[in-house]
Amino acid sequence: MHQKNINYSISLTLSFIAFLSYLIGFLFNENSAGAGGYIGDLSLIWPNVKLYSGNIHDINSTLLSLEYRSSRMPGVYILHKFLNPFTYSLESYRISVFLFSLSLPFLFFICLKKKFKNIPNPLLVLISSTILFSPYIRTDGYWGLEENFSFFFFLLTYISLNSYIENKKEKFLKKVVLIFFISFFSSIVLYLDTKLILVPLLCFVIIFFSKEEIGIKIITLLLYSIFSIPCFYIINVWGGIMNANAQDGRSFGVTYFENICFASSIIGFYLIPIIFFIENFFEKFKNFYLKKENIFLLLIFTLYVVYIAFSYDFNTQKISGSGIIDKLSSMLFENYILKVIFLSTCFIFLFSLILFFFNNTYINKIILVFFLLFSLISNPLSQEYFDPIIFFLIFTFYNKPIQINFNAAYVLYIYSGILIIGANFYYYNLFN
What we know:
Elements: H1 2-27, H2 42-53, H3 59-63, H4 75-83, H5 90-101, H6 103-115, H7 121-129, H8 135-142, H9 147-166, H10 172-192, H11 198-208, H12 214-227, H13 229-238, H14 259-271, H15 281-288, H16 292-311, H17 324-332, H18 336-358, H19 362-376, H20 389-394, H21 406-431
Helix pairs in contact: 1-7, 2-4, 5-8, 6-7, 6-9, 9-10, 10-11, 10-12, 11-12, 11-19, 14-18, 14-19, 16-18, 17-18
């Protein structure tokens, strides 16, 4: 009992420190993801906010406006127009997004509480507060960027999905209501961030390919079809999934095979602390690679890495892309050969890690395949595409036994804390 009380006190203290660091970061105009600052992405987003806060009755002209400079659909700006009364000035807008972003750890706590019912609240508070160390949640919250709104509806989607799964034996009408909220919230995620089409895809697959009655499946298909109509309308107006004004510096119809390596390194980086949430991880990891099919997959990837190492110039990576492992290699090694050896070793090890984590159920496999395929067409491939979504997915949709305990939570907290400190030092030195 004494040790439990100590853990409770430590957890709540660490959670308070995470919240306090988030507040301090705003006061000091922190830029821990490289996209912050008044001349960063805010300089592109603020004109979009003003554009949509004006008259949007002529939707076609607004969608085609030369002022619109986002690669995402305009869902977040429509939300600001109708739900955010603080867009009358740049600073009031920044403060509103900053305060709104504080809802994320509270929603995440609800998600954790729903999935891990017998875990004490202080431990779940600690894990949920850890997301405030994400450089991307912080930078988005401080500088009025777009992604935190999509994470908000992602978490609402999971809460709705979990309620549906728990109430499968309820009356038909109640299930229909829950299906409506799942499809509605997950569809909003798509309109806020196109690359998160994974979220409605996962929800649809979970419901449609379950043992649910056919009526529920038909309603699910119907609702998603209805909520997709604005998406197809926007694509038709734009002539593609992205406004033509936002396509500068982006290549379409080009496949970046090296990105599978970089994506694996980024995903694997976020899985390292999750090792401590897997009971008897090292034994299970060893047994996993005693199976011939898993050794074969790892061998294929190793040959792939060797091919990339000899055919790709790693010095051509954009500074805004490639992820933390590539940046770390540039800091550690001036010699190109040593850099390639270091990167290749990390690619293989971290891929072996993600193969272990995501190889057991069809939901996990969908998550992995989606991110690897997405990386093939992404230029640049930014770490923000995976942070904090991988973290959220591991504790929500991810389907593998996870043992929530204080020691693992402490490791995750420290790991995330080191990341945010390192990110701040990196971008401070880069821009100063």
